[in-house]
Specification:
The chain is α/β, with parallel strands linked by helices and about 325 residues long. The radius of gyration is 23 Å and the shape is elongated. The strands form three sheets. A seven-stranded mixed β-sheet has the order 5-4-8-7-6-9-10. It has a two-stranded antiparallel sheet with strand order 1-2. It has a two-stranded parallel sheet with strand order 3-11.
C-alpha cells in the first residue's frame, strides 16, 4: 500500500530533483530527458522514492534506471557503507523492481537484505512477509514490560551550560512514585556520535505530544555522559520549542554512563517511556510518534507489570 501511494509523488519529485526548467538542454540544444536531468543529483533518498513512484505508475524501465541513478548518487556521496537505513531503502526498492519483473527469488533476497539492514522498519517487514506469504512479525523490543534497570539519582547539570536548572539533583523514584496510571516519565540516555541529531528530532515531537496530550507525559530526563551530543548549535531550536510548549525536561550528568550501561543501550539516544510502576512501556523512536502510541497501548492492555524494582546506583 505504501508504494502505491507514492504514485502521486512522481511529478513533485521530478520537479524537485530536476529543477524548475534548469539544465533542460545539453550539447547543441539537445533537450534532456527527465532522467538525464536528475542524473548526478545528490539526494539519493529522494531518487529511491522516485524509483518507487515510477514503479507504482507502471513505468518499470524508468524505475530501474532511476534506481541505478540513486545508487550512483549514494556512492558519489561516499555513503557506500555508512547508513544502514539508506542501504535498506535501496534494497527495498530493488526488491520491488525485481518482483515486478518476475524475479521472485531476487526480490526475496533483496527484501531479506533490506530487513537485515533495518530490522525496525515495519514497511520492510510487511513487504518481506508478503513475498514469503506469511503474516508480518513485529516482536516487542527486549526491554518492554521489564522494570527500568536503575533507580538513578543524578546531578542536574548541563555540561556545556546551555540549560540552567534551579535544582541540584533529580531522582528516578521521586518522579515515578508520583506518576498516575496512564502517565509517563521519558528517560533519554544520550551517547556520542549522532545522538544530537536524533535527540533533537525526538524532543521536538515530544514537545508537540505534550501539548496535545498534557496528561500523558510528566517530564523528560535527558541523561548524558559526554558533551558531543549536547552541542549547543544542534539543540537550541528543539529545546527552545520544549520551553515554548511547556515540556518539563532536565539535563542529568552521568559521568560514568551507569544508566546507559545498565540499560544496555544499542542505539542513540536510547528512549524509555516508563509508567507509574517503573515498567518500561516503550523504547521505540519518538520522532515519528511510534514510541508514544506503543506506550499507551501497552500500558492499557492487560498483562504484567514490573516483576523486580530497579536497583539503586
Amino acid at each position: 500500500g505504501m508504494v502505491d501511494a507514492l504514485a502521486e509523488l512522481e511529478m513533485p519529485l521530478l520537479r524537485y530533483l530536476g529543477g524548475a526548467g534548469g539544465g533542460l538542454f545539453s550539447g547543441f540544444g539537445k533537450q534532456k530527458t527527465a532522467l538525464e536531468r536528475i542524473t548526478g543529483h545528490p539526494d539519493y533518498i529522494a531518487l529511491n522514492l522516485l524509483a518507487l513512484a515510477k514503479l507504482a505508475r507502471g513505468q518499470h524501465d524508468e524505475a530501474w534506471q532511476t534506481l541505478e541513478i540513486a545508487q550512483a548518487s549514494r556512492i558519489a556521496a561516499d555513503q557506500a557503507s555508512y547508513s544502514s537505513i539508506d542501504l535498506s531503502l535501496e534494497q527495498f526498492t530493488a526488491s520491488h523492481c525485481l518482483h515486478t519483473s518476475g524475479d521472485v527469488p531476487g526480490a526475496l533476497a533483496a527484501a531479506r537484505q533490506a530487513r537485515e539492514l533495518a530490522p525496525d522498519i515495519e514497511e520492510v517487514e510487511r513487504w518481506l512477509a508478503h513475498i514469503e506469504d506469511r503474516e508480518p512479525e513485529f516482536p516487542d523490543p527486549d526491554w518492554i514490560g521489564k522494570p527500568f534497570p536503575v533507580a538513578y539519582e543524578l546531578e542536574a547539570s548541563d555540561p556545556i551550560n546551555e540549560v540552567v536548572t534551579p535544582i541540584d539533583r533529580v531522582g528516578f523514584r521521586e518522579i515515578v512514585d508520583t506518576l498516575r496510571p496512564g502517565e509517563f516519565l521519558l528517560v533519554m540516555a544520550l551517547g556520542t556520535y549522532r545522538s544530537n541529531y536524533y535527540y533533537n528530532l525526538d524532543m521536538e515531537r515530544v514537545a508537540e505530544l505534550k501539548r496535545a496530550f498534557p496528561d500523558r507525559l510528566r517530564e523528560v530526563h535527558v541523561i548524558t555522559h559526554g558533551t558531543y551530543a549536547l552541542d549547543a548549535d544542534h539543540r537550541r531550536r528543539a529545546e527552545g520549542l520544549c520551553r515554548e510548549l511547556n515540556l518539563p525536561f532536565v539535563i542529568l550528568w552521568d559521568e560514568g554512563a551507569e544508566v546507559a550501561n545498565a540499560a544496555e543501550a544499542d542505539g542513540w539516544p536510547a528512549r524509555f517511556m516508563v509508567d507509574h510502576t517503573g515498567t518500561i512501556r516503550s523504547t521505540e523512536r519518538l520522532m515519528e510518534e511510534e514510541g508514544f502510541w506503543a506506550a499507551l497501548a501497552r500500558a492499557s492492555s492487560p498483562g504484567a507489570s514490573a516483576s523486580e524494582p530497579p536497583q539503586d546506583v
